[in-house]
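To: structure desk
From: M.T.
Subject: fold request, one chain
Message: Could you run this one when you get a chance? Sequence is below, nothing fancy, just the single chain.
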Amino acid sequence: MYHTSTTTNSLPMSEFIKRYQDQEKFMAYCKECPNYNTLWSCPPLQFDANELLQDFGHINLIAVKVIYEEETIKSADTPEKVKEVTTNSLREVKTKLADTVLGLECEFPGSIGLASGGCHLCEHCSRLEDLPCRIPKKMRYSLDSFGFDLTAITAELLQIELQWPKNGLPEYYTLIHALMTKEPVGTRLDTITI
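Reply: Done. Structure tokens follow.
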């Protein structure tokens, strides 16, 4: 059905913010998303995003390309089939990637992971009932919610062009998680495969 390819890169947080953050522009996009104000992982955040980012010296990116086999692309010949393949494959890979980042948090005390897109740990987020997150130890905020330009990040730092479905399943999708750390992680990310 698919295979994956993992790419990583790291940057000092101050440089990353300077090059890739435009909160006003990207929060406007977030407001158009159905996850806005419905998932705890998504905007509006309940804290000052910039204040949190200032606590970290580095951001370590992990991108996973979910590359579909030719037969899978051909068989996803209706919008319903495209949605089914997309939902199932991305959820499976995102779960593995999230678990990897949680493991890295344990290796690097004081670090915090960021996720790709909205959280889907619960069938219905408790934010809709104005209740606290049910699984705060696993839920991670999305990179998008900090106003980062994911298209530029993937192109410039990870050499990946984002693809979107047009008239069928694209050749691949890309999931991007990050680990914010106080100190550099060295070559640790070089061995990660999802």
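Reply (cont.): The mean pLDDT is 94. Let me know if you need anything else for the meeting.
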